[in-house]
Design brief:
Elements: H1 15-22, E1 28-32, H2 39-53, E2 57-63, H3 70-83, E3 90-94, E4 97-101, E5 106-112, E6 128-135, H4 143-153, E7 161-166, H5 175-179, E8 187-189, H6 199-202, H7 204-216, H8 218-224, E9 240-242, H9 247-251, E10 256-261, E11 269-277, E12 282-291, H10 296-305, E13 313-315, H11 320-328, E14 333-335, H12 342-351, E15 354-357, H13 363-371, H14 392-400, H15 402-405
Parallel strand pairs: 1-7, 1-8, 2-5, 2-6, 6-7, 9-15, 10-13, 12-15, 13-14
Antiparallel strand pairs: 3-4, 4-5, 10-11, 11-12
């Protein structure tokens, strides 16, 4: 009988991941990517392997809706068992939907997330639920709900593996797309798409369809086949560049501007500091303070401690008392000048410039600029005008550059 090599069952990109999984190098394994990236089929192999090598450990596989389990995660794990040549070792059951490892009685359970509380009802005859899989991650309500589920399953043992897989939704604002941007030492993220998969596994027709879409609709190709969250096409700011802005680079900047948009709760107070390179028409976002429920005294103290109080900061003039407070607290401020059409003019001015943002240095400004999109009607058509929500750092940027923009028109 020919011995099965596990490396022949998974794409080369997953070789090191498999080793990490078997060595328990991480607790959380996230697999985002495009079509043909074999994310789900890979996990369908990883879970049976872990079951056979960890007596007493059971698995629970989740989908957002129970009626999708049988033809997705259940079928993927059965396929993985078959590829491993272990059909005789596992007994599949349909009612309840589960797969039993015959030598020990360990179980692979399947549950819908129609009611997140169902995870608390998982009962196992011995050991603990050490393996979880959330397929189509983006379809779940959010990280908070998944955390509650894992608080019920991830207990009673010393080793845990949590798998999450999904094709990133087109909008960058989706919670799953944003979640994988958050650094987490216990998580290993592995991207894959059809370009990582042997052609013979996918078939020539699959490749032809992908290449045809690449030629006819490159944006759709990037999203569907490469797994990129390209946005809905309604992004207000398209000339964004996300990269590290070093302290050494900041020391070279000499045209510094600062702005404040007032807020308390739920709207935040937003202070933004930036540099404008007029020759290259490029804005660099250097620092920010974006907080809730902070008094003028507290925010002024932060500005003074960072030695930002000697440069003029332009504020929203809608709160003259706050402007007066800042002045009396030692911060050089002035109210923005508002006029008819000022918002539209200043927004268009910003849209024509490149904006460089460091996600680690200014996370709130990064998120606002990245996710700020035009609103759409019921037919999906873009509505003209700029949404007045989730734009507090953006407004602070407008105020900061107001005097520069007013070279041709009064704006705010």
């Amino acid at each position: 009988m020919t011995q099965i090599r596990i490396e022949d069952l998974i794409i080369p990109k997953f070789d090191d991941v498999l080793e990490d999984i078997l060595d328990h190098g991480h607790t959380h394994y996230t697999f985002p990517g495009g079509r043909g990236g074999t994310k789900s089929s890979g996990i369908g192999i990883f879970i049976p392997l872990l079951i056979t090598q960890n007596p007493g450990v059971h698995a629970a596989c989740f989908r957002r809706y129970a009626n999708t389990l049988k033809d997705s995660v259940y079928a993927e794990i059965l396929s993985g068992i078959n590829k491993l040549g272990m059909n005789d070792l596992f007994q599949p059951k349909l009612s309840p939907l589960e797969i039993v490892y015959k030598p020990t009685g360990q179980r692979i359970l399947f549950r819908g997330f129609d009611d997140p509380g169902k995870s608390k009802s998982i009962k196992i005859p011995f050991g603990y639920t050490g393996i979880t899989w959330f397929e189509e991650l983006d379809q779940f309500p959010g990280r908070k709900e998944l955390r509650k589920a894992m608080q019920s399953t991830m207990r009673g043992g010393d080793k845990f593996w949590n798998f999450e897989s999904f094709n990133p939704p087109i909008t960058t604002a989706n919670w799953a797309n944003q979640d994988i941007l958050i650094p987490k030492k216990s998580r290993l993220i592995t991207w894959s798409n059809y370009l990582d998969t042997p052609v013979e596994w996918l078939g020539e027709q699959f490749i032809e369809e992908a290449e045809d879409l690449k030629l006819t609709d490159y944006r759709a190709y990037q999203h569907e086949y490469l797994g990129m969250a390209v946005g809905t096409g309604g992004n207000v700011f398209e000339k964004l560049e996300f990269k590290t802005i070093s302290d050494d680079l900041i020391k070279k900047f000499d045209r510094i501007y600062q702005g404040i948009d007032w807020g308390w709760y739920p709207d935040p107070f937003a202070f933004v500091r930036l540099h404008y390179d007029a020759a290259r028409q490029t804005i660099y976002i250097l620092d920010e303070l974006c907080v809730n429920k902070k008094s003028n005294e507290e925010t002024a103290k932060w500005i003074r401690e960072h030695k930002y109080n000697d440069i003029l900061t332009v504020c929203d003039s809608a709160e003259p008392k706050s402007v007066f407070d800042m002045r009396s607290l030692g911060v050089k401020v002035d109210g923005a000048i508002k006029g008819p059409g000022s918002v539209e003019y200043s927004m268009k001015w910003l849209q024509r410039r490149k904006i460089v943002v460091d996600p680690a240095r200014t996370p709130h400004t990064y998120k606002e600029l990245r996710d700020y999109e035009y609103e759409r009607n019921k037919e999906g058509e873009i509505i003209s005008g700029y949404p007045d929500k989730d734009n507090h750092c953006i407004d602070a940027i407008r105020y900061a550059l107001e005097r520069l923009m007013r070279g041709s028109k009064t704006v705010a």
